[in-house]
Amino acid sequence: MNVLVVNAGSSSLKYQLLNTDTREVFAKGNCERIGIDGSFIGHEENGVKDKLEVELPDHRTAIKHVFDILKTVDAPIEGIGHRVVQGGWYFPESAVVTDETLGWVREVAPLAPLHNYAEADVIEICREMFPELGNVIVPDTAFHYNMPEKAWRYAIPRDVVDKYHVRKYGAHGTSHRFIWRTVHEMMGDKTHKLVSCHLGSGASLCAIEDGKCMDTTMGLTPLDGLIMGTRCGTVDPATVFYLNRVAGMSIDDIDTMMNKQSGLLAVSAKSSDSRDIEEGANSGDANCQMAMDMFYYRTSQLFAEMAASMEGVDTMAFTAGIGENSVTMRAGVAERLKWMGVEIDPELNKIRSDEPRVISTPDSAITVLVVPTNEELMIALDVEELLGK
Ligand code: AMP
After folding, report:
1. Are 270 and 194 within one domain?
2. The model's pTM
3. pLDDT tens digits, 57-77
4. Fewer beta carbons under 10 A from the terminal one: N or C of the chain?
């Protein structure tokens, strides 16, 4: 089945057209600066990258351009999969778009206002413009929906939890689900308790036992948990009250600071990109070295937390930008987990490949893999399953 996967943000729209049987990607791209001056579409087809300077006043125009561009591709679109950041209290799994399910995406949007409203608008536009095509909602939270209550519940009053739906929703669920699937294909019955480590500019860990999410490090929103590119991860919640009362920062200022000015960027005082930070540390920059040390420290700490939530762990999988590519960061995290019996083979760790692979020694108590994630393929496979071929 040829599926168009759409990932809409407030001012961007990523797309990919792929086939679920052959897994061939026919074309992909990103509409950038929607509603802002200087908009363009970065399009890639047959390995050739193109920059199309077009006016994109709104998402409707962007979608129209994407369909026009894709008309020349010899793979008629048979279904559309929409990544939705927040499925809230409605989506334990992906769902076909109906008036009702689309309404749910809007209803839970206050939990992820920068994403869900744009995603809902794009879904509506696709239904209107191409009524012959089925659309599927793939929420990034769905995989975490059924984690045990002791993992998702916050210890705050029950009436607040119930009225405002305050709980751990997690994120990166589509990636963690893909990682479980791939690891299970490779390892079969040797893997029962997996910690999936999605380490990119956003980062989260997920404890997965026999395919079920048992816990994850992101919370009500993707701000919680690990230290990320520009997000602080877990801090004492009272930091917010303190900064508001004592430093006179508004809630919006603190939101911006914690989401966009913190994390690796803040500690390194240099960059949010781990490549720049590694380079800085190599040339003796102490702030960059601290950013890396803190990244290893928190990642290994939360790895142990995920293992504790399953009362054990047999497999660890690194994925996403840092997890797939940074030999140094993988080694740094693994080094701090030696006490748990993690032992990676430095030569295997150095190998660069697009294929999933084991990088631990045969004696390692925990099998360690590098598994390239593929959220678009996971979304397309859900579309195929829900809409049929
Ligand atoms: P993602 O959000 O999954 O696209 O990951 C983005 C992050 O991955 C960037 O901030 C980089 O820090 C990191 N990254 C990407 N490529 C490499 C690489 N070749 N070596 C080290 N880090 C990388």
Report:
1. yes
2. 0.96
3. 999 999 999 999 999 999 999
4. C
